[in-house]
């Protein structure tokens, strides 16, 4: 049993939340980069493949 | 929780500046590496609680206690910061309705107060959770700007 999420419809309906989460994430990331400088790569390095997979999945889903 | 895995360690760092920030943040996020099966799944399960994410050894306190020993030989501050960071991740995650294997390897049961939703889609649109995460975000930004 599985539940299919229509990402386009869900994103449109919840756009204020999506925008707020993205803004908070970006602000936090910028502040962390300013604090940690190059050491940030140790923190985000292992998650870069995860980010690529996620973005590819989102793109694929929005193309439908 | 989503941003809390970054914001809570940052707030802790604000209270205890002697901790090693990078080790604290790495410890607080390394558990998320077990989310790969969740990311590559084709569909969101109707019962997300049954999925593999957060049911691995990476989401146990035991994992961080074991890693503390080799890190302690290397550097006590880094070892302690890494363990505290890891504990915050597991304990924050234990707040959701799935709970976490807090007593692993003594027990494989999932423990926790079960007060937050586990499903991602519900989580990001829940007003109370959003308010909590936003408050933690503001506190973390203050810590980062003041230090």
Describe it.
The complex is a heterodimer of chains A (64) and B (147). In chain A, 78% of the residues lie in helices and 3% in strands. Chain A has helices at 7-13, 15-36, 40-44, 48-63; one strand at 2-3. The model of chain A has no long low-confidence stretch (mean pLDDT 89). Chain B has one domain (4-146). Chain B is globular, with a radius of gyration of 16 Å. The A-B interface holds A 1-5, 10, 14, 17-18, 20-21, 24-25, 27-28, 31-32, 34-36, 39, 42-43, 46-47, 50, 53-54, 57 and B 2-3, 6-7, 21-22, 25-26, 29-30, 32-33, 35-36, 39-40, 42-47, 121, 124-125, 130, 133-134, 137, 140-141, 144-145, 147.
Distance between the termini of chain A: 22 Å
Rg over C-alpha atoms of chain A, rounded to the nearest angstrom:
15 Å
How big a fraction of the residues of chain A is strand?
Answer: under 5%
Q: What is the assembly state of the chains in this entry?
A: heterodimer
The largest chain-to-chain contact, stated as pair and per-chain residue counts, equals:
A-B, 29 and 34 residues
Reading the helices and strands of chain A in chain order gives EHHHH
Tell me the total number of β-strands of chain B: 1
How many structural domains of chain B?
1
Tally the helices of chain B.
7
Write the layout of secondary structure elements.
The complex is a heterodimer of chains A (64) and B (147).
Chain A (H helix, E strand, L loop, with lengths): L1 E2 L3 H7 L1 H22 L3 H5 L3 H16 L1
Chain B lengths: L3 H12 L5 H9 L6 H4 L4 E2 L15 H14 L1 H18 L26 H4 L3 H20 L1
């Amino acid at each position: 049993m599985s539940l299919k999420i229509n990402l386009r419809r869900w994103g449109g309906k919840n756009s204020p939340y999506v925008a707020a989460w993205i803004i908070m994430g970006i602000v936090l990331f910028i502040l962390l980069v300013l604090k940690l400088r190059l050491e940030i790569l140790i923190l985000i390095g292992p998650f870069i493949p995860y980010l690529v997979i996620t973005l590819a999945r989102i793109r694929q889903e929005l193309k439908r | 929780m989503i941003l809390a895995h970054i914001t809570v360690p940052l707030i802790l760092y604000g209270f205890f500046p002697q901790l090693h920030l990078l080790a604290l943040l790495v410890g607080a996020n390394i558990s998320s590496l077990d989310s790969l099966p969740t990311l590559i799944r084709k569909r969101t399960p109707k019962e997300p609680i049954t999925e593999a994410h957060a049911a691995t050894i990476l989401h146990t306190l035991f994992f961080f206690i074991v890693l503390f020993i080799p890190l302690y030989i290397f550097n006590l501050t880094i070892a302690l910061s890494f363990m505290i960071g890891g504990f915050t991740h597991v304990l924050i995650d234990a707040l959701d309705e799935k709970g976490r294997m807090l007593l692993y390897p003594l027990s494989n049961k999932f423990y926790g107060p079960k007060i937050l939703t586990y499903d991602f889609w519900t989580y990001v649109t829940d007003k109370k959770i959003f308010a909590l995460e936003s408050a933690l975000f503001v506190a973390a930004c203050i810590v980062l700007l003041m230090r």
